[in-house]
Amino acid sequence: MAVSTRSLYRGDPGMWSWVLHRFTGVAIFFFLFVHVLDTAIIQISPDLYDEVIGTYKTPLFGVLEIGLFGAVLFHALNGLRVVLVDFWSKGPRYQRTMLWAVGAVWLGVFAVAGGIMFYIWVRSL
Fold it and tell me: Under DSSP, is residue 89 helix (H, G, I), strand (E, B) or coil?
């Protein structure tokens, strides 16, 4: 009898949603952790705090800020979808449709808001 080497997941959109939800959750957690640390620096040295905050005004951090917005937006929208799948009796039946709706709403909101953020970032350079 041959042993199957195929994965349980075969690239289904629901699997990628799960992966992206976990990835964005970790990214948001990392941001919050760094945010708490850099805010705590003010108690040690206000000058060091000003220096750290100054690094956030670099172009790299401008791009990361736009990415953070996209991560928070997806994580929130997909979290609402997960709640509906778990607590709405018809949720499992419509989970795929809701996933595509999350993607469409995310794309629309991110295109507009991310575009505005990008415009402001470019003007500040």
Answer: coil
Contact (CB, 8 A) for 28 and 76 = no
- Residue 93: what residue type? R
The pair of structure tokens assigned to 53 is: 């905050």
Q: Which residue stretches of 1-125 are H helix?
A: 13-44, 46-55, 59-87, 91-124
Tell me how far apart the alpha carbons of residues 13 and 35 are, in angstroms, rounded to a whole number.
Answer: 32
Identity at 45, one-letter amino acid code: S
Question: What φ, ψ does residue 106 adopt, rounded to 5°?
Answer: -60, -45
Angle between helices 59-87 and 13-44 (to 10 degrees): 130
Q: Convert the pLDDT of each residue in 3-44 to its tens digit.
A: 656 666 667 788 889 999 999 999 999 999 999 999 999 999
